[in-house]
Q: What sequence folds into this?
């Protein structure tokens, strides 16, 4: 699915960068691998976001990382001097909560959500008044014991009101949580995922991503979850609805072809911009069978500031 | 891959059962789902094994469950009054240890094995004098903390002598263990699996199997491990070498088409017998695209005792 026109390289090309900026009103910006890697913010990022906003552009941070809620993301952005409001943040946990409360709308009391994930998911579910179990509850951070083997097998440990399994990145994943999730799915719960990223870029290396944490459930059930993060168009629809975007004047910026760039192309946005500070490199989209190719690319997001000259 | 001749049903058919027994000298017998489900031994199993041995048949227990060593398996068999010697037990952990020490033969000191799994794997590695880390070491049963994020990312927590990642069923799987395993594979360690069973039948239900515990590593690296359990023919070669089998006079007995029955067919054994006390049912091999079909089947292994009449 590499596109016909070659990807245009903007770094160091001031006229092309200015032309690029003039095409768009809104930039949807991935965070991990674009703004930062873990706690390390890339050079010039705060100034770049400031510059885009000074040019009248709307900057929306669209992230698949479900471990933080929008409020927590805002705190991180602020601590790194990156200008934003909470309304400019759209995460996969929020996307999942919106989907459950406004689209899935299971009738109570069978609308409880079994969560595999961290506090970000819990906060967003709470903000939509969705009942849930699991998640960061210490009762689920346990080893298997005879009661667990028996109670999971005979169902006595299961909550009969669970109608949804929502799985995302869980730094406390264990055998017990996977075994419980499988039982709920086997009983017919709807299978949702915040996102399917296989890895999480952090500290200049890679760690297990949400897609690798929840894949045991896919392997056991043979079922694929509905993913609510990039590149799922369920997320794009939610973003468009919230921000009233003109898709033709919107550009997706990200480091991953299989999430960010695919998300922008499938969403028929006016453009996509790849940055080379994260997972994918130029050779990844130039090779045969590449999952997606960006319309534009830069070495780093801060290269866009050249247009300020 | 369903075979041309229909599977022959032996339950209640005494002449056919006698004819079946006369075809074979050795029975390779799966344990979980055939002899027992968890701690529950199926009716008549001790007497059936006793009967087969009284008929001059060799009974070899071939199991993909890597959580127990051969000695531990023997204890379990004895506690259930099932006659066996330690030499009649062949597990995937033992198969993996044999493969590492006698076939892979990495030069020391770069031959250390990073284990994801339980004590069974450790015991079998020790019996072959293979150095290992991970496994049941309490130091690996930990949450991520700043030192872990940093030390895994920068490599300071990694052992430079690890040349193999051996993954199997681990009831204490966690984020830390997966993250470590990924780093070793990324550095070029050989990727081995005791087995790839997606589920573990227990207490009349299903729990995550080895294949579902290690699949995050497959998802992150895009690499497939070499599996040393059924249906891998590496295991069949090891079994044949150890027991000096005449394959044409050997029958594989099991409950799973994708491991047991496939193992016997691909190993060109004289026959395969499916039992219906475990994972698969008759409709599973009769449907279009079935992974394998047994030559014979019974409702339960104890049905073979009818031939004693």
A:
């Amino acid at each position: 699915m590499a596109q016909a026109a070659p990807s245009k390289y903007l770094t160091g090309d001031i006229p092309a960068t200015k032309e690029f900026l003039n095409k768009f009103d809104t930039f949807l910006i991935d965070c991990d691998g674009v703004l930062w890697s873990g706690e390390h913010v890339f050079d010039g990022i705060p100034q770049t976001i400031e510059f885009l906003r000074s040019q009248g552009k709307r900057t929306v941070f669209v992230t698949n990382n479900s471990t933080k809620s929008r409020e927590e993301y805002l705190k991180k952005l602020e601590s790194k001097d990156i200008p934003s409001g909470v309304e400019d943040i759209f995460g996969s946990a929020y996307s999942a909560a919106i989907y459950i409360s406004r689209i899935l709308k299971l009738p109570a009391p069978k609308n409880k959500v079994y969560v595999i994930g961290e506090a970000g998911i819990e906060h967003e579910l709470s903000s939509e008044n969705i009942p849930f179990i699991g998640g960061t509850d210490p009762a689920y951070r346990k080893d298997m014991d005879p009661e667990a083997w028996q109670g999971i097998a005979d169902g006595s440990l299961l909550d009969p009101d669970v109608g949804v399994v929502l799985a995302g990145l869980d730094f406390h994943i264990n055998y017990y949580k996977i075994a419980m999730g499988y039982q709920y799915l086997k009983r017919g719960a709807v299978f949702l995922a915040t996102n399917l990223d296989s890895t999480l870029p952090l500290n200049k290396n890679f760690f297990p991503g949400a897609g690798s944490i929840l894949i045991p459930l896919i392997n056991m059930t043979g079922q694929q979850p509905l993913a609510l993060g990039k590149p799922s168009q369920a997320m794009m629809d939610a973003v468009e609805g919230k921000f009233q975007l003109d898709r033709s004047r919107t550009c997706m910026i990200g480091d991953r072809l299989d999430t960010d760039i695919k998300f922008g192309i499938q969403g028929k946005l006016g453009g996509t911009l790849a940055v080379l500070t994260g997972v994918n490199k130029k050779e990844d989209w130039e090779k045969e069978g590449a999952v997606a190719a960006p319309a534009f690319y830069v070495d780093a997001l801060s290269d866009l500031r050249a247009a300020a000259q």
